[in-house]
Prior knowledge:
CATH class: Mainly Beta
Largest sheet: 5 strands, mixed
Number of strands: 16
CATH topology: Immunoglobulin-like
Order of helices and strands: HEHEEEEEEEEEEEEEEEH
Number of domains: 1
Strand order of the largest sheet: 5-11-10-7-8
CATH superfamily: Cupredoxins -  blue copper proteins
Amino acid sequence: MKRVVITASFVIAALVIGLGVPVHGAAATGTIKGHVKMTGQVPPNPRIRMGADPLCAIAARRSGTQPVQEIVVVGSDKGLANTFVDLAGSFAGAPPAPKDPVVISQKGCIYSPRVVGVRVGQPLRFVNSDTLVHDVHAMSTKNEFNYTQPKSGSVNNYTPKTPELMLRLKCDVHSWMTAYVGVEAHPYFAVTGADGTFTIANVPAGRHTIRTWHERYGSLTQVVTVKPGETATVDFAYKGTEKPTAKLATLLVP
């Protein structure tokens, strides 16, 4: 008869995964991949009328396309872009915040990207790529700032001090300009791409609550179990009937 040797580390690992307790270390992490999509009718995005600033209007004409508020952006299979995805909770063993900045550019009188994520303690950089005055105003009581950028090449940096979901940005000069920032204390977040997909790597093994945020359709939540060295798949679907968030109601389109 063969002897089966069960080590203490094996027992601990089994208990951790079974109980859904996050564990840390390179050997105890996995990956979450997923897809956020629309199952209902896709609404049209409102047109941006830039006539209030002749220089913005010229930039819009040069682009050759009619600028719109990119609130609901879907791919060919109705994958929903610009959706912020993160894990709820705290992670004591999370790595330190990166030193490289997350950059938001102002070009053609539009913030780009529209949705980003950043760590607490990681620089958030704003760049004016237009030859006219812009402004970056955080509509927040947790991470407050307001930068005027008078010319092309103007750069301002802000380091978030506390988590916030979501931080809304606006331009006090051009009321149609808006962007959103998810400020996290941990690195386990992502923003869906043009096809609605996302990947969150190096996630501690265990049972986690994963959630989405979309500026029109709000939040969805699921539970996912991550196993060491494996990839867990989580898909989200918005019906399109979800109630718009309160922040969307404050969006002014002249």
